[in-house]
Amino acid sequence: MIEIREEQRREHQEIRQVIVAAFGGDTEANLVELLRDRNKALAALVAVSDNKIVGHIMFSPVTITLAPKTLRTVGLAPLSVLPEFQRQGIGSMLTREGLKKCAAAGFEIAVVLGSPYYYPRFGFSRASLYDLDNEYDTDEHFMAMELKNGALDKVGGTVRYSPEFKECGC
Ligand SMILES: CC(C)(COP(=O)(O)OP(=O)(O)OC[C@H]1O[C@@H](n2cnc3c(N)ncnc32)[C@H](O)[C@@H]1OP(=O)(O)O)[C@@H](O)C(=O)NCCC(=O)NCCS
Q1: 78-131: per-residue pLDDT in tens?
Q2: N or C: which terminus of the chain has fewer CB atoms within 10 Å of its end residue's CB?
Q3: Is 87 in the pocket of ligand 1 (CB under 6 A)?
Q4: Minimal-distance CA residue to ligand 1 atom 23
Q5: Which domain holds residue 136?
C-alpha cells in the first residue's frame, strides 16, 4: 500500500537519499534543499511504503514573460522514485496528487521539462503549442498543462524557473 502525503521536516535526509538514488547524483537533491530553504517549495509530497519513503515530488514557482500579473504558474521538478520501486505507478500517483494540490491552491498552469513519453498521460502537452518557450533550448521536452480551464490562452513568451535551478546546475 502506497501513501501519498506532504513531506515532513524530519524526513529531509531520507528524501535526499531517495532523490540521489533516483538521479544517480546530488544535483536534484541540492535543488530540493535550496528551494525549501528559500521557501519556494509550493508543494512537496512523498510516497511512503511500509514507513519507508520511496518517492518524492516538488513544485516551485515559475514566471512567464507575457501573462496576466495575477496568473500563477508552477513548475514540476524534480520527481524521484527509488529505482527498486519504479514502474509500479508511484511516479504517477505523486504527479497526479501534486497537480491536484497545486490546482486546489489556485495555480492555473503547470509546466515540466521531461520525457514527452511520460508526462502527456497527466495532461501535459508541448508548451510551444501555446507560444511558450523556455531557457533550456528544447522544444519537445518542455510541456505545459492547464490547471484551470482557459489559462493557457492568456500566455506567451518565455517560462523561467526560479534562479535556484541555475544555481544548482539544473
Ligand atoms: C521518472 C520516474 C519518476 C517515473 O516513476 P515511476 O514510478 O517508475 O513511474 P510510473 O510507474 O508511474 O510510470 C512508469 C512508466 O513511465 C515510464 N518511464 C519511467 N521513467 C521514464 C523516463 N525517464 N522516460 C520516459 N519514460 C519513463 C515507464 O516506461 C513506464 O511506462 P509505461 O507506463 O508505458 O509502461 C522514475 O523513473 C525516476 O525516478 N526516474 C529517475 C529520475 C527522473 O528521471 N525523474 C524525472 C525527471 S523529469
Answers
A1: 999 999 999 999 999 999 999 999 999 999 999 999 999 999 999 999 999 999
A2: N
A3: yes
A4: 115
A5: 2-167
